[in-house]
Every structure is written in structure tokens, then in C-alpha cells.
Amino acid sequence: MSEDSERHRFKMAKRKALQDARLAEKTVSAKGLLMVHTGAGKGKSTAAFGLALRALGHGWRIGVVQFGKGQWMSGERKMLEALGAEKVAWHTLGEGFTWETQDRARDEAAARRAWEKALALMAEPDLRLLILDELNIALRYEHLPLDEVIAALVARRPDLHIVVTGRNAKPELIAIADLVTEMTPVKHHFAAGVKAQEGIEF
Amino acid sequence: MSEDSERHRFKMAKRKALQDARLAEKTVSAKGLLMVHTGAGKGKSTAAFGLALRALGHGWRIGVVQFGKGQWMSGERKMLEALGAEKVAWHTLGEGFTWETQDRARDEAAARRAWEKALALMAEPDLRLLILDELNIALRYEHLPLDEVIAALVARRPDLHIVVTGRNAKPELIAIADLVTEMTPVKHHFAAGVKAQEGIEF
């Protein structure tokens, strides 16, 4: 073995020991996570649907409540339902972005319907993963009372994983979440004059 | 209509006009995007598999080459293949993280095998989306020559979308990419002593 690969081996062994030690520190082994995907970048909803795919791979039943732009997700819905319609409870109850509808009362009513559906799904004992897509938008525009939503999320069953997506997650939501990821745009093709691409963005 | 909702309506109408104007500015309508999911946060690979789900929803044929940790993605693979095995070319050719294998020559050979498979898939004319999972790791550890990878990605077919995932994306890759998203960890349950959760993280 050369000196270079010896050094590499030593460095990597040290790193593995560190990783193993970190893993051993973890003590809580089964917990329904409250996950938040926020930020102005791409991938917030897409990563949530990737989690749905994984959950179905584990044989879980999942729920999706869309608080907005449901019309862009029909491909994902069709595919997830093809994997087992009885395993997927999908409800698109948002009526699009508020700047599309321009009617606050209608936005609030739509958010309320979506939230009631979310509460109903949270009460279903066989559901293991619930995606509340774009809930952050409804909270940001105060279409729903933040306190009510926070209280219900905190009181979720211990074995229910929840993913909340959307820009501008409220600090109160981040405070109660287990895992928060910010999707940050580093570079975007729109800036270079390239349109949204079918199959990738819708 | 109350003054408040009038003001809301005006604000939202202005916003919609701005959105519409931005959309009209986009001129390039069909382009295979080079996308990069990087950063230390969650969701890089998961969002890529969410894109795979969407692509299958559009009837596309997709490819996946895993440069690492393939063993954690068996649920996703099983589910995507269940949607049409003939539509999914999946190759797990990485041998795990370098700090697991502790053998540089083996890491390089594995990366080379994975890259050759990626090149072969890029040459298949009916493939529309190719996921190069954890390629960033192989580039970071110089298991592959960066120049060679960059040149091949730049020379991709104009209708092929490629997603490259992994931490520490090289600046040279970011420079040639159309869409770069950094997944930034804001909060992580590991810090609170909660282990990786089955069904969510693997």
C-alpha cells in the first residue's frame, strides 16, 4: 500500500469512527417526525412526494392535502395512486395562489376546507405519513389561525410523520419541527430566459 | 366589498400582472435542464426521485445511476420499477461512502463503472431524465476527472434532463448548470437525539 493510500485509509477510518460514535449517541428510536420544507428554491413539494414514494415502498398508507397549486401535481398523484389507490388519500382543496384568485374570503374558505381534511386524516390510525403541501402559504397569508395549526401539529400521534411545504415557514412552525430544510435557489434557468419545462416543473 | 378586501384584491392583481409579465419574458421553450441538488440538508436525492415520479407520470423513460449509498434507496427503486420496469433503467454502482470502504483504488474503480454507465444511458435516445445520484461526492473526492464529467454533461442531448445530487457541488458544475438548489439544514432531529427513521430516511 502506498503512503498516499495509507494516509487516505487513516483519514477515512477516523471519519468512520466519528460517524459511528455520533450514531451511537442517538437515543430516541421511533418518533413521528414533523418535517418542514421551506425556502425560495425548487424541490420542496418534489422532495415531499419523493418521501411519499419511499413510504409506499415500506407499505405505508399516506395522505396528501394540497393547500394550493394542485393542478401542477396531477402526474405525481396519478403515479402514487397507481402504486395502490387504497394506500393514498389525496385531496386537492386549495384553489390556487391567492394572487390568482384575488378573493380573500374564498382563499380562507379553501384553506379551512383543506385544514379540516388534514385534521380528519391525522385522526386515521393507519396513516403513517401526511403531506400538507403549501400549508406554509396559507399560514403566511393568515388564511388559517396559526395557533390552531401549531396546537394540532404538536398533538399529532407519536407515530405519524408530517411534512409541511411552502416558502416562508412561520418561526412558530420551525420551533416545533423536528427537521427543517431550506431549499435555497443558487441558480435558476428562468433568469436565462428558459421557460418552465414540462415533465420537470409540472 | 370591504376596503380591506379591495386593497387585497388590488395588491394581488398587481402581483399577478408581474408574474404574467415574467412568464412572457421566457423565450427558450424546450431545453433539457442540468439540475444540481446540493447542500448539507435533506432532500437532495429525495427530490430527484420525486422528479422521477413526475417524469414517469408524463410517460418518460428515466435512468438512475447511483454513485453511492444505493442500499438506502431500495424502496424508491422498487416503487419506480413497479410503475413500469421498462421505463426505469436503475444502476447502483457505487460501493458506499469512501469512509466506509477505506480504499481509494476501489472507490475510483466504482466511480468509473458508474460514470461509464451514465455515459451509456446519456446515449440512449429515448431516455428523457437521468439522475446521477451522489455524483458530487465522487467529484469532490476526485474519484473521477472533473474535466471529463463537465465536458460530457455540456455535450448532452438538448432534450435530456439531468439531475446531479450530493453535497459540495463543484463550482465548475454549478457554472454549467441551469438550475441549482442548495438544501440547507435549518434544524435536524439528530441534534435532539432522535435516530434516523425507517420509512423517512431509508
TrEMBL record, chains A, B:
Fetch the SUPFAM superfamilies from UniProt. Answer: P-loop containing nucleoside triphosphate hydrolases
Subcellular location per UniProt equals: Cytoplasm
GO MF terms held by the record: ATP binding; corrinoid adenosyltransferase activity
Q: Give a yes or no for keyword Cell division in this entry.
A: no
> What UniProt keywords are attached to this protein's entry?
ATP-binding, Cobalamin biosynthesis, Cytoplasm, Nucleotide-binding, Porphyrin biosynthesis, Transferase
Record's keyword annotation contains Transmembrane: no
Broad enzyme group? transferase
Which InterPro entries does the protein's record reference? CblAdoTrfase_CobA, Co_AT_N_dom, P-loop_NTPase
- Enzyme Commission number: 2.5.1.17
**Where do the Cob(I)alamin adenosyltransferase N-terminal domain residues begin and end?**
3-23
In the record, biological process GO terms are: cobalamin biosynthetic process; porphyrin-containing compound biosynthetic process
Q: What sections of the sequence does the record tag as coiled-coil?
A: none
Do you know which Pfam families this protein is assigned to?
Co_AT_N, CobA_CobO_BtuR
User: Which pathway or pathways does this protein act in?
Assistant: Cofactor biosynthesis; adenosylcobalamin biosynthesis; adenosylcobalamin from cob(II)yrinate a,c-diamide: step 2/7
* Reaction it catalyzes: 2 cob(II)alamin + reduced [electron-transfer flavoprotein] + 2 ATP = 2 adenosylcob(III)alamin + 2 triphosphate + oxidized [electron-transfer flavoprotein] + 3 H(+); 2 cob(II)yrinate a,c diamide + reduced [electron-transfer flavoprotein] + 2 ATP = 2 adenosylcob(III)yrinate a,c-diamide + 2 triphosphate + oxidized [electron-transfer flavoprotein] + 3 H(+)
One GO CC term, this protein: cytoplasm
Task of the protein = Required for both de novo synthesis of the corrin ring for the assimilation of exogenous corrinoids. Participates in the adenosylation of a variety of incomplete and complete corrinoids.
Q: Which family does it belong to?
A: Belongs to the Cob(I)alamin adenosyltransferase family.
**Name under which the protein is recorded:** Corrinoid adenosyltransferase
Source organism per entry reads Methylocystis bryophila
